[in-house]
Task: structure prediction
Amino acid sequence: MAMMIKTLLVAGRDRQRLSEIVQIASRFGLGILLARFGLERATAAEALTDEPQTLPRRTRQALEELGPTFVKLGQILATRGDLLTPEWVAELEHLHSSAPTLPFETLRPAVEAALGQAPETAFAGFDPMPLAAASMAQVHRATLSDGTQVVLKIRRPDIRPRMEADLRLIAELAALAETSSAEARRFRPRDLVLQLAQAVLEELDFTSEGRNADRLRADFAQDPRVVIPEIHWQWTSETLLVMDFIEGVPPRDAATLRAAGLEPAVIAALGADVVLDMVMINGRFHGDPHPGNLLCLPGNRIALLDLGMIGHVSPRRREEVIAFVQSLSSADPEQLADVFGAWSAGSGVAQDRIQAAAERLIARHGGGPIKLSAIVADLLPLLRDEGMTMPPDLLLMFKALMTIDGVLQAIEPDFDLASAMQRASLRMARARLSPDHWAPVLQALAWELSKIGGDAPRLVRAVIRRLEQKPVDAPHADPSRAIVIGARWIAGAILAAAVVLAVAMVLG
Result:
């Protein structure tokens, strides 16, 4: 194939990788796809022989062969049901990042460099046989001197330079596509690259996953039903993560849970509360809560694993999601249109199209049970048809909610997400009324008011001088008006000082 991407101006260190990308794309027959985005001149033969129904599958296979950076790109695209058809989304959702295991001796130099000694010396016990392997890391078990069972997540050697090269090349491809193809511009490829780079660089640094675990553990410190693996920071670094080993039952079906002495209905309610609290109250959530990243423990507890992908949601987004669910529960197209308008701000979509989209979704799902998977399955094609797009942070949040909804429906078919969200709304309201929520707000307010309070004596003196002076340019001015204005200034200064004292007493 005569690939346009061969003409990219890339550094010499990246040319070999670019050649590999070209070869793999050619082998999987992706000329038609690349031509669609302005990256290829497809031949007539390719156009005639291409089978559209196999293109998503061949693309997924090519991404898997290209390695973890491209797998991550495909996983991000799998969340973009507002841009891709269901066939593409379904295929990209099958992307996996598995990889063959490496002999531990291949990893030993990196492990010894991270630990400063051999793992057999650092730990009371170490198993050189891998427990699991993925494209970015390999996992081994070990035992601490106090008997604690841990796992070592070891980054694969030399993977960072390769992934950084991939990011540079993908950025170049995105820029070329954006200037060459109107269809590519709808995907906003440069924004996708920024999202990809952030995700990749965060997952490459294992201290980031460790900090995520610490933050989530702090979020649920008052709930013993939620277990987050403890991070052993004395052994953890960018290339090595050491955390508690947790053994439990994945929530795949009700029969397996019952056989383990667990109650599916209790697990479902807890799982919903945990994910909704992460999204609606804490503002950070597990980005991929599928059964492989969740474990059910004795006592109907839940453990969260694999915390490399954490989403963040602002208070405004949390309120929008609540409004979204409320508008569907109450069948209110006006409220839903307001939500759609907030999500589509700056997109140039006409208000009548936003209103029509809201009415269509309400007609299909309004007033009934909240089945989030079904709702989003209709929502994303609706947005795509109307030329609307959803903010990326919301897409990851909806993906997490859909994932947990599917998990909980599998173990408890009568589970109702709407009821769980109503409970979450009440907890959100209680959290906003708690002293912990208001302490930082009051501290900031106290600081601002303290500056006003500090100026109060000067303001009072200025007002008195103003009252004592007869205006030269307004000899007939009403003196009562000046007194009222002065009184307001004095009252304001006194009020500011009083608030400062009150806040200081609350915080003290």
